[in-house]
Design a protein that fits this description.
The chain is an all-alpha fold and 142 residues long. It has six helices and no strands. The chain has a domain of 88 residues: Alpha Horseshoe (Serine Threonine Protein Phosphatase 5, Tetratricopeptide repeat). Helix 2 runs antiparallel to helix 3 and helix 3 packs antiparallel against helix 4. About 8% of the residues have low confidence.
Length: 142
């Protein structure tokens, strides 16, 4: 009797384990399928071709917007900073340097030292070493 009861318990345990394992496999298979579908959708969205002309046009549009923002709010340090970054990406170092320097000065005046340091770091990437040195000295007065 004990032996038969042990066999029944063992059989029930085995059936339960097999059912759980099958369910886990089904869930894993479903999860893998969903991940594959998401990856495929992501790949489809990621393939976007942009021509140099379109990039230049978007830079020009951004420049126009930030220039307008500065004309209405001349102490907007972030607008100067953003404009400097755009000019640097566009390869216009002189204008990039002027705007990054102005952003750095405004950030200092607004007690935003971390932002001024970021402007300085970007200014160093241009050819305007004198402006970078001047901003560095203003960031680190003696």
């Amino acid at each position: 009797m004990k032996k038969a009861l042990s066999c029944i318990v063992l059989l029930l345990f085995s059936l339960t384990f097999m059912a759980c394992t099958k369910k886990s496999e089904d869930e894993r298979s479903k999860a893998h399928k969903e991940i594959g579908e998401k990856a495929t959708r992501t790949k489809k969205r990621a393939v976007i071709e942009v021509t140099p002309e379109e990039v230049a046009k978007s830079y020009d549009e951004a420049i126009a917007k930030y220039t307008k923002a500065i004309s209405t709010k001349p102490n907007d340090a972030m607008a100067y900073y953003s404009l400097g970054i755009i000019y640097r990406k566009k390869g216009v170092d002189l204008q990039a340097a002027e705007h990054l320097y102005k952003a750095g000065i405004l950030f200092i005046e607004q007690n935003k030292r971390n932002n001024a340091l970021k402007a300085y770091e970007e200014l160093q990437k241009t050819n305007a070493k004198e402006l970078a040195q001047d901003l560095f000295e203003k960031l680190n007065p003696k």
